[in-house]
Amino acid sequence: MTTRPISTDGAGIPAPSDEHSLSVGPNGPLLLQDHYLIQKMAHFNRERVPERVVHAKGGGAHGVLRITEDVSQFTKAKLFQRGKETPLFLRFSTVAGELGSADTARDPRGFAIKFYTEDGNYDLVGNNTPIFFIRDPQKFSDFIHSQKRRADNHLRDNNMQWDFWTLSPESAHQVTFLMSDRGTPASWRNMHGFGSHTFLWYNAAGEKFWVKYHFKTDQGIRNLTAAEADAMASADPDHRIRDLHQAIKTGQHPSWTVNVQVMPFEAAADYRFNPFDLTKVWPHSDYPEITIGTMTLNRNPDNYFAEVEQAAFEPSNLVPGIDTSPDKMLQGRLFSYPDTHRYRIGPNYQQLPINAPAVPVNSYNFDGPMTFRNQQDPVYAPNSMNGPAADPAPYAGANYNVAGEIIRSAYTLHADDDDYGQPRALWENVLSETDREHLVGNIVGHASAPEVTAETKKRVVEYWSNVHKDLGQGVSQGLGLS
Ligand code: NDP
Ligand code: HEM
Fold first, then answer.
1. Which residues bind heme (predicted)?
2. Distance of alpha carbon 423 from alpha carbon 86, whole angstroms
């Protein structure tokens, strides 16, 4: 005979029944004193935390980063030293849809990694594209509103999307990726990941470099056509979560080759593109990718809610050897993520096991809802009681000069900066004939939605003509405008 554990309430008290409420006789009314029933219903009412305001639908897995090359000349970050193995958690996501939306929607994919390093957590919160739609965080909430739902009818609206994009020409590069078949990857395993921003690396001698991260899928790039993605959205809207879970469960551990592009610190000032503009890549001919290691996902979460839903990534989690850059978008994100976590999960979200570092926490942060860290005295600094004390030494080398007038302004342009040159290079030099046909077809399909006005369609054609006249011509013909 198998013995079963006895069910309990959250306090560990044996449950009186899993089936019957406490009533006055078998047919009588229920009693307020049935505290077991009340805690069960009350807890159920609080089972959800608010979903993420963006990137709500996703899945994730645990894994490991292995560094195979010596990059100590560029960074002293401990996780990037040759031979190092660092445990990590990676969450993939779509951006605009809600928690129950289809995994195959045309959207960038989130690629958010938390590295549990010996210097605390390092978070790299990137996407599957090396660039983004905008270059100033001032426009982020407006951009997201245009991708989500209207105020009056609560519907998503392609007119709103094209209205925003065509009035924001800096979006052209990212929208080219989005409207290509890379906007609908076949699985999370079959796409690259990018840190997207430019970050600062500094070495033990205090020398500084600018760096971009590229995680190249070892499974190969595979995408769906628009028709395949639409079909999958109804056949299996959770396909991406299922695919990742099944692959790991059956021992097919997905992996990515970890590459970086490294720019000497001084080269940024007169590089032909603004190296901090998030709508631009650094062409490989200028800065080739250098392989530094490999990342493998090898363990499924035990509990989706505890590990995936409550995972809290923040670009402000940086460790010695790595720092921010003057990228305005990165600067905006440094504030936004910890702020949204304090609201969505609570101010002590860092104490949850998925977010807690693998090293001791000696913070002077104190109390707050749901705290379970055993804060010791003294609870303030400076103190004369031998409490924890800051050590600036690991950060030596991160400092650099900035100066200027305090103004609201676009970035100053570098020699080759414009909004259309890089998407044009993608169209002219990288996309195959089939890729181009699909890009035109996907744009036309999207901009043909009934809500897209004639005025917006004209701007859509202008926008794509600015990228390339053949692309503009194809879109114009597809929309019946020429
Ligand atoms: P390269 O020819 O050296 O690199 C082209 C890059 O494009 C490769 O990283 C390639 O890597 C990627 N690529 C291939 N097919 C597609 C596709 N259908 N959609 C998106 N990316 C694709 O040229 P440059 O470095 O000079 O860049 C030219 C253009 O390529 C850029 O303007 C940009 O649009 C795009 N690109 C550049 C990247 C960079 O970091 N330099 C990164 C990604 C794209 P893979 O096939 O492995 O994805
Ligand atoms: C999630 C804000 C730009 C990648 C989020 C969330 C917010 C946010 C509030 C929800 C976080 C949560 O509830 O856990 C912003 C702001 C941006 C910005 C203000 C610009 C100013 C970007 C860029 C990228 C990116 C440029 C990629 C390069 C992600 C990812 C997630 C996310 C991957 C999901 C993280 C997860 O899996 O939990 N963003 N974002 N975001 N963002 Fe951004």
1. 337
2. 36
Q: Which amino acid is at 201?
A: W
Annotation says 127 is catalytic:
yes
Taking the mean position of all CA atoms in its chain, how far away is CA 241?
16
d(CA 200, CA 208): 7
Query: Contact, 181 vs 225, CB < 8 A?
Result: yes
Return the percent helix, strand and coil in the chain, to nearest 5: 30, 15, 50
Amino acid at residue number 149:
R
Instruction: Give backbone dihedrals phi and psi of 424, rounded to 5 degrees, phi first.
Output: -65, -40
In this structure, what token pair is assigned to residue 105? 């929607």
337 is in an annotated binding site: yes
- Write the CB contacts of 252 (distance below 8 Å, at least 6 apart in sequence): none
Q: Which two tokens stand for residue 388?
A: 């924890």
Pocket of ligand 2 (CB under 6 A): 52-55, 58, 91, 93, 110, 112, 125-127, 132, 137, 140, 196, 311-313, 329, 332-333, 336-337, 340-341, 344
Task: Name the one residue in this structure whose structure tokens are 């430019």.
Answer: 198
Q: Can you give the pLDDT at residue 254?
A: 98
Which of 292, 262, 318, 395 has the alpha carbon at shortest distance from 81? 292
User: CA 363, CA 307: separation in Å to the nearest integer?
Assistant: 23
Residue 9 Cα, ligand 1 centroid: separation in angstroms? Answer: 55
User: Annotated catalytic, 55?
Assistant: yes
Nearest-CA neighbor of 325 among 433, 202, 220?
202
The residues, ordered by sequence, that sit 6+ positions from 391 with a Cβ below 8 Å of its Cβ are none
Centroid of chain to Cα 10: 34
Which tokens belong to 233? 């959205």
Count CA atoms closer than 13 A to 346's CA, side-chain side.
13
pLDDT score for 302 = 98
Task: Report in angstroms the alpha-carbon separations of 428 from 73, 431, 462.
Answer: 36, 7, 18
Length of the chain: 482
Could you tell me the pTM of the whole model? Answer: 0.97
Spell out where 101-243 has E strands.
109-117, 120-127, 193-194, 199-202, 208-217
What SS3 class is residue 320?
Answer: coil
Task: Summarize pLDDT for 251-267 with one digit per residue, the tens.
Answer: 999 999 999 999 999 99
| Cβ-proximal residues to 247 (8 Å cutoff; 6+ apart), any chain | 189, 253, 254
What is the token pair recorded at 85? Answer: 């193995």
Helical spans, DSSP H, in 111-197: 140-147, 158-166, 172-179
Structure letter (DSSP) for residue 8: B
| Residue 1 binned pLDDT confidence (cut-offs 50, 70, 90) | low
Predicted-complex ipTM score: 0.98
Q: Please give the DSSP secondary-structure letter assigned to residue 429.
A: I
Residue type for position 468: H
Tell the residue nearest (CA) to atom 34 of ligand 2. 55
